[in-house]
Design brief:
By secondary structure, the chain is α/β, with parallel strands linked by helices. It has 11 helices and 14 strands.
């Protein structure tokens, strides 16, 4: 990749192509090398000059975006950002796209596109930059389970974890690349283990479909969280897109609070919001995990968890799509251990 990020936009809407092009061209270091109405035209363009990042719609004539994505990954794996409308059907297909190798999904509305670009265009720019960074990385080195991982000295003496599974709690935060990472970690969890709460940065309406997809892959039960849900052993609750998630303690049981509020670190849901709540109510009974993602959301909250006595884990750089969030957590001194992605479920098993 050159000093500038070359972006190809593939969308059958002329308005979308126009406003996306204008937004990306106005961002330093990004060059729109083409904007075409469907994958057939895209293939013609790519045969002449290959882009660094593709911004891809799902529903298009002649060939749908998912089919095109799979062709790209077969011929020449390239960072792809899905830009899709907010419908249940496109949410399901977009999740298939993430599983097929797309780096991120940006939700676009069916109306008010120009206002959306003005208000949330930074998300598109960030996704393109994250995708370009992911494209420059070498293929993740998946370290075999059981291999040693670096250990950092604890910041304070650890209190023995309670024996009751109901009192133990696992909190996971992730962003770009996190859908694929969660599809590695969660299916490896054993049924009956501690309750798990997850913040994955994802657009509204996508999280329910994502939770349903994970539920079919896992031995634990996975679903989108609803306000007031208890945190139960053998269950994973995913924060709804567009709403914050925190954990409360009522008597001897944890429950989740799902609520609106301003974005924290530009995100709603925010990993920091979740981690800070877990630090307060669970302390040394908790395990915190921060995985692949751009930015620093979750780093300060993980530090609060560690200071409260929780054991904290960060995905290592070699297996991250984007190492931003784990790197920031390590830099703050918030991490007890860095682990390759394939080992994280084992760490949860031993320390959760």
């Amino acid at each position: 990749m050159t000093g500038r990020i070359g972006v190809l936009i593939v969308d059958d809407s002329a308005v979308v192509r126009q406003v996306l092009s204008a937004r990306l061209r106005g961002s330093p270091g990004i060059e729109v090398v083409g904007a075409v109405p469907d994958p057939i035209f895209a293939m013609e363009h790519m045969n002449k000059a290959w882009p660094d990042v593709v911004v891809l719609d799902i529903e298009m004539p002649r060939m749908d975006g998912l089919t095109f994505l799979r062709k790209i990954m077969e011929v020449r794996p390239t960072p792809v950002v899905i830009c899709s409308t907010l419908t249940r059907r496109t949410a399901d297909v977009s999740l298939q796209a993430l599983a097929a190798g797309a780096v991120a999904v940006i939700a676009k509305p069916t109306t008010g596109l120009k206002k959306f670009i003005e208000d949330d265009g930074g998300d598109i720019v960030s996704a393109v930059r994250a995708a370009a960074a992911a494209g420059q990385r070498r293929k993740p080195r998946l370290v075999p389970a059981g291999a040693p991982a670096p250990m950092a000295p604890p910041s304070a003496p650890r209190t023995r974890l309670p024996a009751s599974q109901e009192e133990r709690l696992i909190a996971i935060g992730t962003s770009t690349g996190g859908t694929q990472a969660l599809e590695v970690v969660l299916p490896a969890l054993a049924p009956g283990g501690p309750g798990v709460v997850v913040v994955q940065h994802m657009p509204e309406k996508f999280t329910a479909a994502f939770a349903a997809r994970l539920d079919t892959m896992c031995r634990v039960h996975v679903r989108e969280a609803q306000d007031g849900d208890p945190v139960l052993p053998g269950q994973v609750l995913i924060a709804p897109g567009g709403r914050h998630l925190e954990v409360l303690r009522t008597d001897t049981r944890y429950r989740v609070r799902v609520f609106d509020g301003p974005p924290v670190n530009r995100h709603r849901p925010s990993v920091d919001v979740l981690f800070r709540s877990v630090a307060k109510v669970a302390g040394p009974a908790a395990l915190g995990v921060i995985m692949t993602g751009m930015g620093d959301d979750g780093a300060r909250g993980l530090l609060e968890m560690r200071r409260a006595g929780a054991y904290t884990v960060a995905q290592d750089e070699a297996t991250c799509v984007v190492h931003g969030m784990p790197r920031e957590a390590v830099a703050l001194g918030a991490v007890d251990r860095e682990s390759p992605l394939p080992q994280i479920a084992e760490v949860i098993h031993h320390h959760g």
